[in-house]
Design goal:
The chain has five helices and three strands. It has helices at about 5-15, 60-75, 80-85, 85-95, 100-125; strands at about 25-30, 40-45, 50-60.
Length: about 150
Amino acid sequence: MSMYNEKVIAAFMNPKNVGAMENPDGVGEVGNATCGDVMKIYLRVKDERIEDIRFETFGCAAAIATSSMATEMVKGRTIEEALKLTNRDVANALGGLPPEKIHCSLLAEEGIRAAVEDYRRRSQGLPSLPPRHEAVCHHDLAGSEEPRGD
């Protein structure tokens, strides 16, 4: 018996939008040292709309499934719409995630946000930000409102 539902397994087994993108308009990289998941999101934007989006994820089945689902959910949407995507939206679209894997949906949300921030910096002629390699692993925060450590 799997800890994942059929939607999560399907998204993991047949992920959409996988792979690097040449000459992206924005790149977001987020990761979690505790869990070992690393997610890189690439955007191509035209008229403030996400024309294409790709991802590369090194991680567990939930990390790959949430990456795939998040990219599907924002593809074709405006930048503003993409910024409204939450980890709850991603988890719900997958029919739910085990509590210990909710942090994967947060990584997907943060990866989209980081790629959009990079796109905005580039489109305004500002340098790209260095990748942020540390996202809070929320299963480490059970019952806590404040992140522990760095």
